[in-house]
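Continuing from yesterday's entry. The apo prediction looked reasonable, so today I'm repeating it with NAP included to see how the binding region is handled. Same sequence as before; SMILES copied from the compound registry.
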Amino acid sequence: MSSEQPICLITGASAGIGAALAREFARHGHALVLTARREAELDALADEIAAGGQARPHVFAADLATRDGVERLAEGLRERGLEPVYVVNNAGFGLLGAAARLKRDNQLAMIDLNMRALTDLTLRWLPSIRHHRGGILNVASVAGFLPAPGMAVYHATKAYVVSLSEALHAELKADGVHVCALCPGPVPTGFNARAGIPAGYFPGLLGGTAERVAREGYAGFMRGRRLVVPGAPNRALTLLPRLVPRPLVLAYMSWRWDRARRRG
Ligand SMILES: NC(=O)c1ccc[n+]([C@@H]2O[C@H](COP(=O)([O-])OP(=O)(O)OC[C@H]3O[C@@H](n4cnc5c(N)ncnc54)[C@H](OP(=O)(O)O)[C@@H]3O)[C@@H](O)[C@H]2O)c1
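Holo prediction written out below.
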């Protein structure tokens, strides 16, 4: 029998949706490991959770856009005898701008974080996740359902996350492992500032809070859902690309991007 402590690993827990997910998992009694680059923010959240009467989460600062960062995180868990049985892959960022104009390195870093690190952390602990009949919650986005001129690489990374999660959901279901893609619409977090997205860029109708996303995400994940899309307008948005011909979807998304550029 393993002597490792089973824990839930949450990436990108220093802010936004990841911090809300950490509070939600803690509220349901999970022992947590929180990771992101900003250690002070992670420590403050760990203190807050402990002050609420839950076990204080372990904190590991790591840059997950680097291979070294992922390796050091895994090594840190191993040294402390911590074994992920739930992995919440939430860390991610987007960039607004024409792909030809945005810095190539920044777009590749987005792929490293949103796709490579997520895949690594999804696959790395599958034996212990399977053993404990745990699961993997991958934070994708409604962006994963439609191509978007102006955020081409970001939307493509999220399409990857949706596709990977749905396939693994089917592959691992028989082993009692839950894999779920959580697909929020626009949420007011630090995301927009980092992406360079101006206020009012997304239709207000689609907006939600990080707390709601975390609450619905946790509940759907634990019920074994394949996809969780918080909010009826967002659910409708994810259906549209499946009903409307692709060229029309692309024409609409191009029109939105052109309009945003004209407005500066
Ligand atoms: N907000 C939205 O509108 C929205 C909508 C749909 C999906 N999402 C997705 O939700 C997830 C969380 O985003 P958010 O809205 O909560 O944005 P956020 O407030 O900017 O939080 C992003 C989190 O990712 C972490 N992170 C960023 N780069 C990292 C790196 N190189 N290594 C490790 N951690 C890193 C950040 O921590 P540090 O800066 O401390 O590293 C932070 O904790 C992302 O995957 C995003 O794509 C967001």
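Comparison notes:
- The mean pLDDT is 96.
- Residues 12-18, 36-38, 41, 63-65, 90-94, 113, 139, 141, 184, 186-187, 189-191, 194 surround NAP (CB under 6 Å).
Will overlay with the apo model tomorrow.
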